[in-house]
Amino acid sequence: MTVANPVGSFIWYELLTSDIEGAAAFYREVVGWTIATHADPEAGGLDYRMIVRDDGGMAGGAMAITEDMAQGGARPIWLPYFYVENVDAAVEAITSEGGKVQMPATDLPVGRIAMVADPQGVPIYLMKPVPPADKPDAASDVFSVTENQRVRWNELASPDQAGSMAFYGKHFGFTFDEKMSMGEMGDYCFIGHHGQTLGAIMQRQEESQPSVWMFYFGVPSIAQAKTAVEANGGKVLMGPHEVPGGEWIIVALDPQGAGFGLVGPKGD
Questions:
Q1: Whole-number Å distance between alpha carbons of 266 and 259
Q2: The CATH number of the domain covering residues in 10-129
Q3: 2, 75, 85, 223: which has the fewest C-beta neighbours closer than 10 Å?
Q4: Which CATH class is domain 151-264?
């Protein structure tokens, strides 16, 4: 997960959940993923499970929130991992600008990671991966602009849009050369990164809106996905509605309360 993923790439996604079995059943019906029935043996005693796509690749991981984590304020949420060359240096640089360490830098078999809150309070992971020994040039493919069962869009509603754009531009190489006016809601500023559009950053509209990254998973039919969300204990918060380019989206909560989006054709 190094050569083909430039610094600042989204290289992994993680679901923190209060009910990992319930989440597995829900996302199987909504997105089509298979979440492992047992913890990963390299997870150091945590209930951490791989999220597997139909093609056998990985969509990310799911981790059960422990009692200690819950007492510390952890709640169901999707989180991103950003690729960095030096985790410790990145942590130091981010904390020097007002970010906070949520989990100190730690070595795992898959690489070195840390969790921080950026200066705007948004939680993110930093990671320097260790590629598989038999695939030294392996690249992460959890993000794709076009493919189903992958994250297709990364969106941040920031309490300080200008601050977030400056932060992610400086540390992760994001550029913001294109934008779309949303009227009184401000500009929807698209994230450019090494020739790809990764998503967008916008201004949070209400203080009650959580300051977190939200991820839109690709599905073949928004109509069918909406039905699946509602039939399996989730709640649709917004949509379906059409977005530029002709595709459709919804924003929803899973049964445990983690927010996510779906994107794809309208469907029947």
A1: 21
A2: 3.10.180.10
A3: 85
A4: alpha beta
